[in-house]
Specification:
The complex is a heterodimer of chains A (100) and B (558). By secondary structure, chain A is α+β, with helices and mostly antiparallel strands. Chain A contains three helices and five strands; from the N terminus they run βββαββαα. Chain A has helices at 42-53, 79-86, 95-99, and strands at residues 8-14, 20-23, 29-30, 59-68, 75-76. The radius of gyration of chain A is 13 Å and the shape is globular. The termini of chain A are far apart. The model of chain A has no long low-confidence stretch (mean pLDDT 95). Chain B has 558 residues and is of the alpha+beta class. Helix content of chain B is 39%, strand content 17%. Chain B has 19 helices and 21 strands. In chain B, the strands form four sheets. In chain B, strands 16, 17, 18, 19, 20 and 21 form a six-stranded mixed sheet that branches. A five-stranded antiparallel sheet of chain B has the order 1-2-5-4-13. A five-stranded antiparallel sheet of chain B has the order 3-14-15-12-11. In chain B, a hairpin with a 4-residue loop joins strand 1 (45-47) and strand 2 (52-56). In chain B, helix 1 packs antiparallel against helix 2 (33-42), helix 10 (304-312) packs across helix 11 (314-323) and helix 14 (427-439) packs across helix 16. Chain B is globular and about 60 Å long. The N and C termini of chain B lie far apart (51 Å). Chains A and B meet through helix 2 of A and helix 14 of B.
Chain lengths: 100, 558
């Protein structure tokens, strides 16, 4: 039996700033994980990944990352994605800096 | 210290102009990321977890105050006000923005610095003993040779597309502070029967997923043969090295697969072929480089003030006992400035701290600074009478931590807080270990202890050669830390032995405490270092402390 598909978000780094970005349902890029489009269908995920991979002027290193639904929108599953969504643990830099 | 010739300056500026155009074309969409990535990597620009990262070369770890001031300016103007000194004597900026990078490289060129060959499958920054030119045990200052190697390897047409990266380390002392045995080529200055200086050449050392101690390929290489011999080694590997599998591409695997004798024979053959092409121009260049590394004008002055201060002030005494090393000139000392304040990120310095260190070097240190692979900063030439003033200024800047060589003087790679390759965090583990042993007030009692932490198998944190090594891994989506014991990065180099199964993030500090408790219980006297005690008693008492009675069973299950 095929494994159940884990929901995903499309993520990348911004070309200019280098920071983490996520693809929204409206084909825009957001800097906030909870605003990303949560994709729960494998075929749709492939389409979204293809679309995002074509955004050469905006997104670098596009990939699908596991995510889950939360009260305020999608949340990261793996700790690596949690760090990407927050920033480093030694200084309040990165996303935690601008969101504080 | 070497100053750029007109040729060097023109070359670096040409590269900056070239990269500026490439950045422009990337931003306007003329270049895709696939096209741009190799170009940015050639200029030391990585894309990490949260941002771009620029790795700037500090050749053989040597700086003057002007360069250090410029590094501070860059940190302030284009980054977040700090820089991270690495285990390869470089500095990394964690937050540059792509459009700013050409301006940063221009600012580096203004002080004779660059980021070329700090990435990619090229010969990387040549690292050297951070006490070079100052150490009491030194045969010769190895830095002129390191500079010659830098010039030879920079943009060397044969070595721009190699199977993998290539790292050279050099020391002029029998006490190896440059980890030469864990490099692709390690050079150790020695003397032959006639008393002439030459090199013992090691090849095929390295850490990463296949840790190996370098093997002696040549017991005594005359100084004049150095470049052709190194060229022969790199050339043979460049041809023979495996390009089918990046995990088997490093020279350590080439040497292991072909055998040292076969490899040596090929090197000798290639050496015989190319040696005549080196007509002595390299030696003329070396002679002119050597003049630039002439020893400073040391002064002869009384040191009574130092002795009196040492006797009177316990804080100063504690710092002097741990952070000073013996200088080759009487009345002088080598100062190691710890970038390991308890609870802080190993190797980080703020722009203000960089300026303080630059200023101290200018006023008291013959304008010289070094970066050590242990992520500290060195003032190599300080007269002892100036030490009380230096210590006071360091204390004001939060730079007077008295812990060099102790348990809180930890090497740590950036780990998953920054690095895209990491599988777990390193920095907070280092911070917590340092904080814990500071609370216990045990670190001076423990004595010499080298803890080294890597956040992935690539081993930038040198964990294999740590007395205690910690390797952070991702085990089923959770951070997990493996411990190795008995590693050694010096002339008696050894790869550490794994204790058994790893520990969770919140278990790792207690596990280190258990190891230290076991050492304090097992050691014969306070003089027996952890490493010596470990070599005497073996791994079993430590396993028992970590895993209890089921140590054997759990070790098998790992």
């Amino acid at each position: 039996m095929a494994r159940a598909f884990t929901p995903k978000v499309v993520t990348a780094n911004d070309l200019i700033e280098g920071d983490v970005i996520y693809l929204t349902e409206q084909d825009q890029w957001t800097r906030h994980h909870n605003e990303a489009e949560l994709i729960d269908d494998e075929a749709h995920a492939e389409i979204r990944l293809l679309f995002a991979s074509g955004q050469h002027a905006k997104a670098v290193g596009v990939y699908l990352a596991d995510a889950k639904a939360g009260p305020d929108g999608p949340e990261p599953v793996h700790f690596r994605e949690a760090f990407r969504a927050k920033g480093p643990s030694n200084y309040a830099h990165g996303k935690q800096e601008t969101r504080a | 210290m070497y100053t750029y010739s007109e040729y060097d300056d023109a070359y670096v500026r040409r590269r900056v102009a070239e990269f500026a155009q490439q950045v422009e074309r990337r931003i306007d969409g003329s270049l895709t990321e696939d096209e741009f990535k190799p170009l940015r990597l050639m200029n030391g620009l990585y894309l990490q977890l949260h941002a771009y990262m620029l790795r700037v070369a500090i050749p053989y770890g040597t700086l003057d105050s002007r360069k250090m001031d410029q590094l501070a300016l860059i940190a302030e103007k284009w980054d977040k006000g700090y820089g991270h000194f690495t285990t390869r004597q470089n500095i990394q900026y964690n937050w540059p923005k792509l459009p700013d990078v050409p301006a940063i490289l221009e600012a580096l060129a203004d002080v004779g610095m660059h980021a070329i060959q700090t990435s990619g499958n090229t010969i990387r920054n040549v690292t050297a003993d951070h006490f070079a030119g100052a150490a009491a045990d030194e045969i010769e200052d190895p830095r002129p040779v390191a500079e010659l190697l830098r010039q030879w390897s920079t943009d060397h047409p044969e070595f721009q597309f190699m199977p993998r990266k290539f790292k050279i380390a050099i020391t002029g002392s029998p006490n190896d502070r440059a980890v030469t045995k864990a490099h692709d080529i390690g050079l150790r200055m020695v003397r032959n029967d006639k008393g002439e200086p030459g090199f013992e050449v090691l090849v095929g050392g390295g850490l990463g997923r296949t840790p190996m101690i370098g093997k002696v390929i040549n017991e005594f290489l005359p100084k004049a043969d150095l470049l052709p011999y190194c060229e022969a080694i790199v050339s043979v590997w460049n041809t023979l090295g495996r390009r089918d599998n990046k995990y088997k591409a490093r020279i350590k695997v080439t040497v292991a697969e072909n055998g040292l004798d076969t490899f040596r024979a090929l090197v000798e053959e290639r050496f015989a072929e190319i040696r005549p092409e080196f007509t002595g121009v390299d030696q003329e260049i070396l002679a002119s480089i050597e003049k630039e590394f002439a020893a400073p004008a040391f002064r002869n002055a009384p040191t009574e003030a130092y002795d009196a201060f040492y006797a009177a002030d316990p804080v100063f005494r504690s710092w002097a006992d741990t952070n000073l090393a013996e200088h080759r000139v009487e009345g002088y000392a080598i100062v190691t400035i710890s970038l390991k304040a308890h609870g802080q990120t190993p190797g980080d310095a703020s722009a203000d701290q960089m300026r303080v260190m630059a200023d101290l070097a200018r006023r008291y240190g013959h304008d010289e600074l070094r970066i050590s692979h242990e992520q500290n900063v060195i003032l190599p030439h300080v007269h002892k009478s100036d030490l009380p003033a230096i210590h006071a200024e360091l204390a004001q800047a939060g730079l007077a931590t008295a812990n060099v060589g102790l348990i809180s003087d930890i090497i740590a790679c950036p780990g998953m807080d920054y690095c895209a390759l990491a599988t777990a965090r390193s920095i907070p583990v280092a911070e917590q270990i340092a904080t814990r042993f500071d609370e216990l007030k045990l670190e001076h009692e423990i004595g010499e202890m080298k803890i080294k932490i890597s956040g992935c198998i690539n081993a930038c944190g040198h964990h294999h050669v740590g007395h205690i090594g910690i390797l952070g891994l991702d085990r089923a989506g959770v951070e997990n830390y493996q411990i190795t014991l008995g590693g050694d990065g010096t002339e008696t180099a050894a790869i550490g032995e794994r204790t058994g199964p790893g520990f969770a993030y919140d278990e790792i500090v207690p596990a280190i405490e258990k190891i230290v408790e076991t050492y304090l219980k097992e050691r014969e006297s306070a003089e027996e270092r952890f490493l010596d005690c470990y070599r005497r008693v073996g791994i079993n008492p430590f396993k028992l402390a970590l895993y209890g009675e089921d140590a054997k069973g759990r070790a098998r299950a790992a």
